[in-house]
Amino acid sequence: MFQLDPRLNQDCHLVTELPLCLVLMMNDNQYPWMILVPKIEGAREILDLSIAQQQQLWLESSRLTRVMQQRYAPDKMNIAALGNVVEQLHLHHIARYKKDIAWPAPVWGKYPAKGYDAATAQQEIMAMSELLEDIKA
Known about the structure:
alpha+beta, HIT family, subunit A, 5-stranded antiparallel sheet, 3 helices, 31% helix, 21% strand, globular, HIT domain-containing protein, HIT-like, HIT_Hint, HIT-like_sf
């Protein structure tokens, strides 16, 4: 049975559920930062998914990227599947700006996270959920 890694659960807000993935929002208001987590028990690498699941993952990742480009108009979208700390397969989608505090370095470990206030978090969750409505389960 699929369970979200406790660290992702602690560090993120649930945005919505897509056919394959949960969409999470990292609780760091310094960067628009979403994470896709395939709801597949034991998946650690993209290759752990079936071919059909891999195709669905890329479809959902592409759609999330487009939605983030539309909403946030970043200079660059960073997409990564690292898993060095959290082994559960997850894809980070981070909207980056030449003016953000970490540019051009990676965001990991550069600055401590600054959490969203409740109202702003809810606003972002609702907006992103609505923008992803066309591919929800």
